[in-house]
């Protein structure tokens, strides 16, 4: 991941020493969404400032709460309104004059949300409590859209996630995708990975919450085994997209390849026999909505990477598991899941060696170490079964090492 402030300082130094021309420096920085004139603070400074402003807001709310019951309603309402207007006014003034003020706008958004909650408490407006968070989101949306401040956008994403979880027991959170769409567009325009990652995580949450309403009964939405099916397909698609984005070297998606490798940890629970036994017992077979929601994702992953092994393995596994999988076959599925994780880790080690990429190499090596520890602590079947699995893993590793030793120079030359 490129640090924009460090890159800007380095290019300024090169420009001062005459190593590059000003036009070259501007073109390099424009690729990462910044420029020579930008004097933004470091990430640490921005984080500490945001925390300080948040604590100021909390301190003000505590002071007000200490004397809340003794104040007339009109004074309470006027005080909340004045505090919200003042914080947002300072933020808008600084944004209009200097292009800054994100911290004050963030503080103003926090005060706005607190005002909604306290006014609702004063006038007993609590018929549908998620609506309070929804009003907070609606008020924060235009501020985030027009100012494009990252702190306000992050607050919008966090509020969207909270509202979706609160709203789901009552009705499907359809509106969540609108707020996430705006936040994602702002993150894309600003090349803001710190916002894009929460947006994508919240989008995955939204998809799962919507799927829970497909499984709903008279008692409300439910989480079923189909959610595991759907999330496995979502994970495979994310892996394929991360591989493609890594080749494009686009700063908007710089952390995603590394995050994609870390996401393999989601597969580690599938290396336990107990999970497979419950999953094969609980899914709905061919009628499982999770399967039909997963199939388009896997087909998209195959279309993006037709030669990839992982999408084809996932497609075959899900179809076979839903069509003919039985709880008594859980041991075989567990062994297969262990071997898939092993093969993916080996592929990362190989790519790390060929591309001289230490992050990819150590991601594969770390996955192997975690897998070995899990298998030692949780003996699949019995001692002999676990020993046999270790021997199979050792044979695959040794065979792969022999193959790469013979083919390594040719592949590197190609």
Any chance you could write out the topology, listing elements then pairs?
Blueprint: H1 4-16, H2 22-31, H3 43-66, H4 73-98, H5 102-122, H6 130-147, H7 150-167, H8 176-190, H9 193-214, H10 225-248, H11 256-262, H12 273-282, H13 289-304, H14 309-324, H15 330-355, H16 358-377, H17 383-413
Descriptive notes:
By secondary structure, the protein is mainly alpha-helical. It is 77% helix and 0% strand. The protein has helices at 4-16, 22-31, 43-66, 73-98, 102-122, 130-147, 150-167, 176-190, 193-214, 225-248, 256-262, 273-282, 289-304, 309-324, 330-355, 358-377, 383-413. Helix 4 runs antiparallel to helix 5 (102-122), helix 5 (102-122) runs parallel beside helix 7 and helix 13 (289-304) runs antiparallel to helix 14 (309-324). The longest helix has 31 residues, at 383-413. It is globular and about 75 Å long.
Strand fraction? under 5%
The description of the largest β-sheet is:
none
Q: Name the average pLDDT.
A: 78
Shape: globular
* Weakly predicted, low-confidence segments: 409-414
- Distance N to C terminus: 28 Å
Number of helices: 17
Question: Care to count the β-strands?
Answer: 0
What would you call the structural class? mainly alpha
What's the order of the H and E elements? HHHHHHHHHHHHHHHHH
Percent helix, as a range, is over 70%
What is the CA-atom radius of gyration, in angstroms?
26 Å
Protein name: DUF2157 domain-containing protein
Keywords: Membrane, Transmembrane, Transmembrane helix
């Amino acid at each position: 991941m490129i640090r924009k402030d460090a890159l800007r300082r380095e290019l300024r130094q090169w420009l001062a020493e005459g190593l590059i021309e000003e036009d070259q420096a501007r073109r390099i920085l424009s690729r990462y969404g910044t420029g020579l004139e930008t004097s933004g603070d470091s990430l640490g400074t921005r984080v500490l400032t945001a925390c300080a402003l948040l604590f100021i807001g909390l301190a003000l709310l505590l002071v007000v709460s200490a004397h809340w019951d003794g104040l007339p309603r009109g004074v309470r309402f006027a005080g909340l309104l004045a505090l919200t207007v003042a914080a947002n006014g300072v933020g808008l003034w600084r944004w209009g004059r200097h292009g800054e003020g994100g911290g004050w706008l963030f503080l103003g958004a926090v005060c706005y949300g607190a005002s909604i909650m306290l006014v609702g408490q004063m006038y007993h407006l609590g018929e549908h409590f998620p609506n309070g968070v929804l009003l907070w989101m609606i008020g924060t949306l235009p501020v985030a859209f027009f100012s494009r401040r990252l702190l306000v956008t992050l607050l919008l994403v966090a509020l969207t996630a909270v509202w979706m979880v609160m709203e789901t027991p009552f009705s499907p959170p359809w509106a969540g995708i609108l707020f996430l769409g705006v936040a994602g567009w702002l993150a894309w325009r600003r090349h803001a990975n710190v916002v894009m990652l929460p947006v994508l995580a919240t989008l995955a949450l939204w998809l799962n919450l919507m799927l829970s309403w497909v499984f709903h009964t008279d008692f409300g939405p439910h989480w079923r085994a189909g959610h595991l099916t759907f999330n496995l397909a979502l994970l495979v698609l994310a892996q394929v997209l991360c591989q493609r984005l890594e080749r494009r070297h686009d700063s908007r998606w710089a952390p995603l390849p590394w995050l994609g490798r870390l996401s393999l940890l989601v597969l580690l629970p599938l290396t336990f026999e107990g999970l497979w036994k419950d999953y094969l017992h609980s899914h709905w077979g061919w009628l499982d909505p999770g399967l039909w929601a997963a199939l388009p994702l896997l087909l998209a992953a195959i279309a993006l990477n037709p030669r990839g092994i992982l999408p084809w393995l996932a497609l075959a596994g899900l179809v076979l598991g839903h069509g003919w999988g039985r709880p008594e076959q859980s041991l075989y599925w567990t062994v297969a899941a262990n071997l898939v994780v092993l093969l993916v880790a080996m592929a990362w080690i190989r790519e790390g060696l060929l591309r001289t990429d230490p992050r990819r190499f150590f991601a594969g090596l770390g996955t192997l170490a975690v897998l070995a520890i899990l298998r030692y602590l949780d003996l699949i079947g019995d001692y002999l079964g676990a020993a046999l699995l270790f021997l199979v893993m050792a044979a695959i590793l040794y065979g792969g090492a022999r193959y790469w030793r013979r083919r390594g120079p040719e592949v590197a030359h190609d």
